[in-house]
Amino acid sequence: METVDPLVRKLSHRSPISDVEREVLRNSVARTKVVDADVDLVAEGSKPTESTLLVSGFAARYSHVADGRRQILAIHVAGDFIDLHSFLLKRMDHGIYAMSTCTVAAVPHERLAEITEGFPHLTRQLWLSTLIDAAILRQWLVGMGRKSAAARAAHLICELNVRLSVVGLTRENAFDFPVTQEEFADSLGMSLVHLSRSIQDLRSMGLFDWQRNRIEIMDWSRLQQLAEFDPTYLNLADGER
Hints:
Layout: H1 5-12, H2 19-28, E1 31-35, E2 40-42, E3 50-56, E4 59-64, E5 70-76, H3 86-89, E6 95-98, E7 102-108, H4 109-118, H5 120-146, H6 149-166, E8 174-176, H7 181-188, H8 192-204, E9 208-211, E10 214-217, H9 220-227
Antiparallel strand pairs: 1-7, 2-6, 3-7, 4-5, 4-6, 8-10, 9-10
Helix pairs in contact: 6-8, 6-9, 7-8
């Protein structure tokens, strides 16, 4: 697998990526590396000179409150630019860490500038990725404010299943998820005890199972219904942009 394959697959799902654009993305990568779990990929307060593409693994955008508690603001999967916005924002007001062992690729900001100046379609595609990041955050906020704990957990499972399927990382509504329940709770804004109860509720309803770092969805239709999951916000429709 080439470094940019997950990204190209994700972008192509929304609008065709030409061979030239694929080559531009391939040539934009300066280097790759493997990062262990629990290591910061982008530090809060830093001023990145490059953006990081997640090639494999799971990463999380996070922020801490004064008493040290952590809120996870996004879960990133293969094919995501985890800090594309740093190209314009410059200073990071939050951190991003590896939830599992990750392979990441560095794309210098000067190469992103070249893309924005010479490849308008590819620029729009990358812009769309940041807009979808914002749409995902809105859905998380709606869940935290208005949905039951079980529905919130179900919604995140549905979302991950769809996003991972786009980059070919699901099989029959099952996917690897080497993330702790504590991290999952931090993503949903609830205590570990509250999450454990919610997971038990979903299991008892025969909707999903989570064993040995793998999630298996047993009843996709009913899980979607409980979650009130509508994938429109993920903008998966193929269309010229």
